UniProtKB/TrEMBL annotation:
Lineage of source species: Bacteria, Bacillati, Actinomycetota, Actinomycetes, Micromonosporales
Beta-lactamase-related domain segment(s): 20-332
Organism: Micromonospora phaseoli
Domain DUF7586 as annotated: residue spans: 353-436
Record-given protein name: CubicO group peptidase, beta-lactamase class C family
UniProt xrefs under InterPro entries: AmpC-like (IPR050491), Beta-lactam-related (IPR001466), Beta-lactam/transpept-like (IPR012338), DUF7586 (IPR056008)
Length: 457
């Protein structure tokens, strides 16, 4: 668990309450509950409105809809990290017998498999899962509406397939796998497949009158991996902390970072939104947010995180339409980020460093462009342009090489090359040659180096 964070300033807390209250009133939601996470812990949890005559709190369950998909993605990526499957594998390799067997697992996670958005038949969110007892009932006879890989097309049935995949590979109900592998390690004791008291009732609000209509809360059966879960503000705050920092008991931080990376193309008019692996992405006022929105009849929910700010925000309400939980959660996060910007941790020297890594540290040049290579506390390397901008983190491969894990060089190998004396001569990163001097003539610079050398004109 992270150290106890600094409490929010009173003015910040009041601003959060004001935004929560105005959101509840404008959205005409019977109740709204929200939380803000900073440095791995909740620093604010509050509710507005009422459930059974009382203000909602962090222990009250709401249905979280498609945030369920992010949990499902965690389960699939655990299997990938264990070597049980690869994201490039066709579904049929692990779950035979469906009409979508050619879809890859990664495409299902990113909604790029081109599958239908909804199930055939009556709207699955308001009808019992017993109406769709088999995967064939979820998909229909021809679920392909777009060529695979060409565009992002959100598919709820696609995540039903991922739930069946987890169940097949683990040999156990996916809900039980989720409880054992994710919920228990993260201490999310109030996140369940079916509601457990105390929980909110889901309502529709009449568009032209302030009256309510109860919404059905059905067990969606095979479609449950797309939106079945119930949770609380306190539990989702723990999940938000996980989506920022990861947790080695569940997923390594690098895998969580992969979830937050774009994995599908945006629409030409929507460059500010995207989708990773089970996570929605949003660029808002220069801040990159990742998480997921969710809705089911009678409920809306959102969790957003900003790893750069070490902040997360959660919003849940019990209304079908009207409350923009996504915008409200983003506003709450932005309120804290702007009023109380993150204070960096103190600089500290590395606890230890491999002398060979120390020899690699410092300036390198790709042609005339200066870069700097730095050993990291976790044993990784970072190569970044000296002019600023995002660098590439590289992890050791165990055979003397390094592999990029983000940015342009993700998946590319860095090989340290030596001269006949055994001294390091240059670095080869995916054919990019980095030298200790700009265009060093004694290294194999592609195309060679003009023997006239650097000249004044």
């Amino acid at each position: 668990m992270s150290p106890i964070p600094t409490p929010l300033l009173p003015e910040t807390r009041r601003a959060l309450v004001h935004r929560l209250a105005t959101g509840q009133v404008a959205g005409r939601a019977p109740s709204v509950v929200a939380a803000v996470v900073r440095d791995g812990r909740p620093v604010w949890v509050d509710g507005w409105g009422a459930v059974d005559g009382r203000a909602p709190d962090g222990n009250l369950q709401y249905r979280i809809g498609s945030i369920t998909k992010t949990f499902m993605a965690v389960l699939v990526l655990r299997l990938r990290d264990e070597g049980r499957l690869a994201l490039a594998d066709p579904l049929a390799e692990h779950l035979p017998g469906t009409v979508a067997g050619e879809a890859t697992i990664g495409a299902l996670l990113a909604h790029t498999a081109g599958l239908i958005a909804e199930t055939p038949g009556p709207w699955w969110e308001r009808t019992p899962g017993a109406l769709r007892p088999a995967l064939a009932d979820v998909l229909g006879g021809d679920p392909q509406v777009h060529p695979a890989g060409q565009r992002h097309h959100y598919s709820n049935p696609g995540y039903a397939l991922l739930g069946a995949l987890v169940q097949r590979v683990r040999g156990q109900e996916w809900g039980e796998v989720l409880r054992r592998e994710v919920l228990e390690p993260l201490e999310m004791t109030r996140t369940t497949l079916l509601p457990v008291a105390p929980h909110a009732t889901g309502w529709a609000v009449h568009p032209w009158a302030d009256v309510l209509l109860a919404e059905p809360a059905v067990d969606t059966g095979l479609m449950a991996p797309a939106g079945q879960l119930w949770s609380t503000a306190t539990d989702l705050a723990r999940f938000a902390a996980f989506l920022i920092d990861g947790d080695d008991r569940v997923l390594h931080p690098d895998t969580v970072a992969q979830m937050r990376s774009p994995a599908s193309p945006s629409e030409a008019t929507d460059w500010d939104i995207g989708y990773g692996l089970g996570m929605q992405l949003l660029r808002r006022d220069g801040r990159l947010l990742a998480g997921h929105t969710g809705s089911m009849p009678g409920f809306v929910a959102t969790v957003w995180v900003s790893p750069d700010d070490a902040l997360g925000a959660v919003v849940m309400g019990n209304v079908t339409a009207g409350l923009s939980a996504g915008a409200l959660a983003a506003d709450l996060l932005q309120t804290v980020a702007e009023r109380e910007p993150r204070i960096p941790a103190p600089w500290r020297p590395l606890p230890s460093v491999d002398p060979q890594l120390l020899d690699l540290a410092g300036p390198w040049y790709w042609g005339p462009a200066p870069y700097v290579l730095r050993p990291q506390a976790d044993g990784f390397l970072e190569l970044a342009p000296l002019s600023g901008g995002h660098g590439t983190r590289l992890r050791p491969t165990g055979d003397g090489d390094w592999e990029g894990i983000n940015g342009y060089f993700a998946g590319e190998r860095l090989r340290v090359q030596h001269d006949p004396t055994g001294a390091v001569s240059h670095l080869d990163l995916g054919t990019f040659i980095f030298t200790r001097q700009p265009y060093n003539p004694v290294t194999p610079v592609p195309g060679g180096v003009d023997p006239a050398g650097w000249q004044a004109r």
